[in-house]
Amino acid sequence: MSLLSHFVNREEFSSYQDFFQNFKLIVPEHFNFAYDVVDRYAEEEPDRVALVWCNDHDEELVITFKEMAKMANRLANLMVKEGIGKGDYVMLVMKGRYEFWPAMIACHKIGAIAIPATHMLKQHDLVYRIEKSQMKGILAVESASLLDEIDAAQAATGDTLKVKICISGPRDGWLDYRSEVEKCSDEWVAPPREERNASGDPMLVYFTSGTSGMPKMVSHAYDMALGYILVAKYWQCVEDGGLHYTAADTGWAKCIWGKLYGQWIAGTRIFVYDYDKFDAEKMLEKLVSHKVTTFCAPPTVYRFLIRQDLSRFDLSGIRYAATAGEPLNPEVYYQFFHKTGLRIREGFGQTETIAIAANWPWDEPEPGSIGRPRPGMDLERIGSDTQPAESGEEGEMCLHTGDARLVGLFMGYHNAEEQTASRWHDGYYHAGDMAWKDEDGYLWFVGRADDVIKTSGYRVGPFEVESAVMEHPSVLECAITGVPDPTRGQVVKATIVLNKGYEPSEELMKEIQEFVKHNTAPYKYPRVIEFVDSLPKTVSGKIRRQEIREQQQKLWADAAAQEAAFQASQKKN
User: How far apart, in whole angstroms, are the C-alpha atoms of residue 527 and residue 529?
Assistant: First the structure.
C-alpha cells in the first residue's frame, strides 16, 4: 500500500469528470507532515531517496528519508535548545541549499511556524517582516551581504529576533549550523498524536505583495500539505520513484508547490539545482544528466529554454512538463512542443491557495488556457453585477467556501482582519483575477483585478516599489505599473513627477534605478522610467494606475498604426 493511499479515497481516475466528481482528500485530525510522511518513510523505507541536490561547483548530494529525518531531528533539538518553541515564527532564507528541507521539517516537529523568504531582501524589508511577525529565529545563507542586512535589521528592531543560525559557516553573532547541529542528538521523541497540532493549526506563512499597503502575512494550516497532492500527482504528474524538478528558489511559494509536500506524499524524489546564476544551457544539462522525469518551471524559464538548440539535449526522459506563475504565451507552448514533443500543462493558483485550476492529465492541454477547476473547491466566476458569469463572459474567479475553510485555502492574513474580510466575505474567497470559460469548461486568464505586477515569476506590489522610489530626493510623486515584456512577461515601470530643481535626464533615470536596487530587492527596480508633469488621480486623490496603463497602450497602438501606415506607403512606392 502506497503512502498516498492513506490520504486519498482513490488514486486513479478514468477521466476529468470522474476525477472532479469523485476525488476526495482524507485529512486526519492531527496531521503533521514531519511525523506522518517523513518519519513514516524513514521508519518503513529508510533507504528511499528523498532529495537529489547539486550546484554549479561539482557538489552533489543524495539524501535518503532516514538521513533527512536525522538531519531534521538534530536541527529541531538545536532550535529547542536555543529557546524556539511551538508557535514561534522562524524565517528561512536559504536560496537553493539542501538544508532548507530539514529546516522545514524541524519547524513542523517543534510546532514553529516557518516563513520562507527570498535572499534578495534588504534591511527595511527585513525590519518590516521582523516587526510584523515578531519572529524569534532566522536561518540564512550568505548571499550578496544578506547577513549584513539581517544584522542591521536586528539592531533596528530591538530584542525580538533572538536566534540566528548561519548556513554558510562561522560568523560573529551567529550560530554556525554545521558545528552546532553536530552537537545535537539525531533522535527526536514524537509527542502522542493527540498532543500534536490540530490539522487546522498554523504551520507556514508567506509575505505576499498587494496593490496597496505593505506585504501581508498569508497563513496556512498543517493540512495545506495534503492539498498539494492535487498539484503533484494530478497536475505535475509525478511518478512513484521518479525524479521531479520544479525550478523555484526556496523563498517563493512555488517551491512549496513543487519541491516538498505533494511530491514526497506521491512517492517521487525531489531534484534541486542550486545554481549561482540562471543559465538555460546548464539547466538543460542538469535535467539530462540526472534523468529528471517530470519538470515544472515558470514561463520565463521556458522562454529561455526554447532559445537553446534543444536537439543537443536528450530530454526523452521527461514525461510531463508544467508551468504556473504567470500566463504562458501560446507561442512558447508551441515552440517547446515542436522541439521536445512535450505539451506544457499550465496551472493557476495563488500564495493564498493551491492550484485551483490546471490542465489535468486526462485533457489535451489548451495553449493559453489555465485548464479546468480542481475537485474539492467550488470555483465560480462572478461578474460585475455580482452574479455568476456565463460561458464566454469575463468574471472574477471566486471560491465558494460557505462557512468552511477549504483544505489548501489560506487561514487568513495574520493580524489583519480587515484585509482578510476584503478578500473573503459573503461565503466566497475572491481571488482578484479575471477569467472567462469556454463551452468545454476551460478557463482563460484575462488579467488581474488589482495592480500586482508579475515579472519573471516574481510578484511585485506597486506600493513597495513606490515607497522605495519616493525616498530618492528628486521624486515628488510616483506610480508603479507593469508593462509587457517578451522575456519577463512584465517589467516594472515608474511614472515619476520630479521635485523642483530636478530635470529629466538619462543620468537621473539610472541614478534612481540604482537607488532602488540598493534599497529593496533588486528584481523590483523599475526597468522603465517615464518622467511626467502630473499623475492621473481620482477625486479622492488616489493615483489611477489603470489610466496610466491605458495611456501607455494607446501610445503603443498609435505607434503600431503609424508603422503599419509607413510600411504600406513603402510598398506602394
Answer: 7
Mapped to the 3 state alphabet, what secondary structure does 113-141 carry? Answer: EEEECCCCCCHHHHHHHHHHHCCCEEEEC
446: left (phi over 0), alpha (psi -120 to 50) or beta: alpha
Amino acid type, 67: E
- CA-CA distance, 538 to 479, in Å (whole number)? 13
pLDDT digits (tens, 9 = 90+) for 352-409: 999 999 999 999 998 889 999 999 989 999 987 788 888 888 889 999 998 777 999 9
What DSSP string describes 348-407? EE-TTSSEEEE--TTSPP-TT--BEEPTTSEEEEE-TTSSBPPTTSEEEEEEE-TTSPPT
Helices 146-156 + 123-133 axis angle, to 10 = 50
**Distance, CA of 3 to CA of 229 (rounded, Å):** 11
Phi, psi of 371 (to 5 degrees): 95, -155
CA quadruple 276, 281, 284, 286: dihedral sign: negative
In the three-class reduction of DSSP (H, G, I as helix; E, B as strand; rest coil), residue 235 is classed as coil
Q: What is the pLDDT of residues 320-360, one digit of tens each?
A: 999 998 778 788 899 999 999 999 999 999 999 999 999 99
| Residues 411 and 221 sit within 8 Å (Cβ to Cβ) | yes
Burial annotation 84-123 (CB, 10 A radius, 16+ → b, else e):
beeebbbbbbbbbbbbbbbbbbbbbbbbbbbbbbbbbbbb
- Are the C-beta atoms of 226 and 195 separated by less than 8 Å? no
Comparing CA positions, the residue from 483, 466, 471 lying closest to residue 549 is 483
Its pTM surpasses 0.70: yes
CA distance 196 to 470: 47
Whole-Å CA distances, 30 to 157, 193, 243, 410: 35, 6, 29, 18
- DSSP annotation of 543 reads B
